[in-house]
Amino acid sequence: MPDIESTGQKPRSDAWKSAITVVQEAEPPPIPEGAHAMTIVVEFPPGDPGTPPHRHSGPAFGYVLEGEMVFELEGRPPRVVPAGAAFWEPGGDVIHYQDGNNRDDIPVRFVVTMHCEPGKPMLVLVDEDELLQRQDRRAPRTD
Hints:
The protein is 7% helix and 32% strand. It is mainly beta. The chain has a single domain (31-136), classed as Sandwich (Jelly Rolls), CATH 2.60.120. A 4-stranded antiparallel β-sheet has the order 1-8-3-6, with no helix packed on it. A hairpin with a 5-residue loop joins strand 4 and strand 5 (79-82). It is globular and about 75 Å long.
């Protein structure tokens, strides 16, 4: 068998053995039949409250690239997701209350991959009437 030098091939790296860091694992939530995946980058300026309460038709998985995001899903208290940390949501009927910038001195930037149900928008805002009807499903707030 010829050696690597005689074939002109570069030696293979072993870097792959330590190149992966697991930042999140989740039991897969239901993905809508025929869904397509979409990956987006979101950036909010310092202090921005983010997207108004909304929902996604399918599950979404994200990773904060820079800054700190305030993340709140229906039934769970708000939490801060710092740069280098991951988050996810099941989509469907669950309201996503907050995805805003937790800091007033730097922007927040995060990437999200979501599975979108065919024929439905990737994001639907929740109106005030529905927020009032479902207020008992929101976790108690500490602010």
